[in-house]
Amino acid sequence: MELLWILNDIGPRDYIDILLVTVLFFSLSFLFRGTQAVALLRGTLFVFVSLIIVSSVFQLQALSWLLSNSLFVFAVAIPVIFQPELRRALERLGRAGIFFGGRAQAESKIQIIEDLCAAAERLSERRHGALIVLERQSNLEEFMRTGVALDSYVNAALLLTVFWPKTELHDGAVIINRAGRVSAAAAVLPLSATRNLPQKKQGTRHRAGLGITEVSDAVCIVVSEETGRISLANGGRMIPRLDRQRLQTILSALYTPDDARPPRFFSRVRTNIVEFVARLRE
Predict the structure, then answer these.
(1) Same domain, 43 and 135
(2) Which one of 184, 235, 247, 282 has the lowest number of neighbouring Cβ atoms within 10 Å?
(3) Contact 208, 168 (CB under 8 A)
(4) What is the dihedral of CA 186, 189, 195, 198, to 10 degrees?
(5) At what angle do helices 71-81 and 61-69 cross, to 10 degrees?
(6) Can you give the pTM of this predicted structure?
(7) Are 198 and 238 in contact (CB under 8 A)?
(8) How far apart are CA 3 and CA 13, in angstroms?
């Protein structure tokens, strides 16, 4: 009855007000999407809501008083805790990169895939180890900061130069951001703890390729320094022994523009099909 009374009392101005607040919170969600702030905020809200429920069910006066008086503390602490994320979000907003910029279009990604496949083939022939990460939805800025900052177009010659064994940047990963540009080189990636590698001889480079795909939705190309074989990691799984044509086919299926990418369920189904076909051809 109270709900019906509230709904009957809502006027056109109230609907506009609710719509604007909804759009505001929805827009704010884009600022933090793909960052570590999402997991931290989710965990904080879970703990806070759980304590509220417990205090209400068991009538815990002291806990209720503590929670009610901690709202001001949370209001002050949130900007401090999420300061890096808020700063990057405001920078993106100032560059109008949320809605209009920063995403490579389909044509440019086709060229990026061709350059990546050409570089991987040459690196494989020379047996020069390589680790190339393609950023997708998950934000990889924390890993970009561990390397040497670059801002360059993706080019096969550039990748061959970076991964030349006698250069300073060859030991680490090259990260290509969502805008389709080489953002960092010699970046440090997290190592996977899995023991189910396709081959026992695969070492740190392959574990790093798996590790970055376990903590994000990135795609990682790995070229072995010992055997020259090309592998691709995605979703914590490794597709080994790829040639240029098969690598290009898989990248074309996985590394698509964000606005043209299907929902996550269909994307995962497509990824499983691509990996299954690749293994059948081995």
Answers:
(1) no
(2) 282
(3) no
(4) -50
(5) 50
(6) 0.62
(7) yes
(8) 18
